[in-house]
């Protein structure tokens, strides 16, 4: 059971609103199958650091979004590992 599992946060530039804000999406890839979901947060495109997959800056708004990204990522990993771990027999 050799599975590949990857996460990628990105800004969907094709959905920029009138204020220059774009939604942040999470792409989950498992064995080449892709699922994309919105994380229900928007950010100004100029504040997004694609390589680091986070918001630039040290203000409270940037820290809040980055903390949300980390907790969201951890929930996804926890869920994935709980689904793939072998069930113990009682």
Structure, described:
The strands form two sheets. Strands 1-2-3 form a three-stranded antiparallel sheet, with helices on one face. Strands 4-5 form a two-stranded antiparallel sheet. It has about 90 residues and is α+β, with helices and mostly antiparallel strands. The model has no long low-confidence stretch (mean pLDDT about 90). The chain has one helix at about 60-85; strands at about 5-10, 20-30, 35-45, 50, 55. About 30% of the residues lie in helices and about 35% in strands. It has one helix and five strands. A hairpin with a 4-residue loop joins strand 4 (about 50) and strand 5 (about 55). It has one domain (about 5-85).
Assembly state of the chains shown: single chain
Radius of gyration computed on alpha carbons = 16 Å
**Mean model confidence by pLDDT:** 92
Uncertain parts: none
Morphology call: elongated
**Strand line-up in the sheet with most strands:** 1-2-3
What is the domain total for the residues? 1
- The succession of helices and strands, N to C, reads EEEEEH
The biggest sheet amounts to: 3 strands, antiparallel
Number of helices: 1
- β content, as a range? 35-45%
Class based on secondary structure composition and strand pairing? alpha+beta
Number of strands: 5
- Percent helix among the residues? 25-40%
Euclidean distance between termini CA atoms? 23 Å
């Amino acid at each position: 059971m050799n599975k590949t599992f990857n996460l990628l946060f990105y800004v969907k530039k094709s959905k920029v609103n009138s204020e220059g804000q774009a939604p942040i999406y999470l792409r989950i890839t498992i064995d080449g199958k892709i699922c994309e979901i919105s994380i229900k947060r928007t950010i100004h495109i100029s504040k997004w650091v694609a390589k680091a997959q986070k918001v630039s800056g040290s203000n409270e708004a940037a820290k809040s979004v980055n903390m949300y990204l980390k907790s969201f990522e951890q929930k996804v990993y926890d869920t994935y590992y709980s689904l793939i771990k072998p069930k113990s027999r009682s």
